[in-house]
Specification:
By secondary structure, the protein is mostly helical. 55% of the residues lie in helices and 0% in strands. Helix 9 packs across helix 10. The chain is globular. The relative contact order is 0.16.
Amino acid sequence: MKKTIVILASILITFLSNPILAAGDTEAGQTKSATCMGCHGLAGNSTIPNFPKLAGQGEAYIVKQLQYFKSGERKNAMMAGVASLLSDQDMEDIAAYYSIQTISENSAKGSEEMIELGRKIYVGGKMDTQTTACIACHGPKGKGIPTAGFPAVSAQHADYTASQLKAFRQYAINKQTDSDGVERVNEMMNNVAMGLTNEEIDALSQYIAGLH
């Protein structure tokens, strides 16, 4: 556990000392985001649980994900098509627009025991699997650390959060079993999700949905 904390601290220092900053035009971004509304909703507040809310998300994070979709580093056929049409400036403008929007609030769903399980993992991690607490990167209210590129997660659809955690976990499963399930690659998140059960992912996702 101490080793995990040291590694995390080193990563945080690196990010904070070398912030990734976007330089977008919010007015231009509003116009360019028109094609995004079908999935991500008005002002980035998706009403479809499988599509993420983008309102209030950090500029640098949005730009990075769009770049990943465009390069194919992050796999999603629909987003690959959208991102392929965007220039670097387009990405920065869209990111700037979404970053200043206000995310709509959710209520956590599930039993008190379920939400408490999610809270314990979010705040304290899991000692037995050396799973780092989510609060370390995403903050007590799930607002993330924009200057470090750590995304906001608060008030996100629980279905979307769960799907991403399972995709991060799938990376380890694919490596271990030589399978080809849908995965998402990020070393830190792969290590976090690897130690989570389906029950814990669902509980964590619901807890996060209620953060604001």
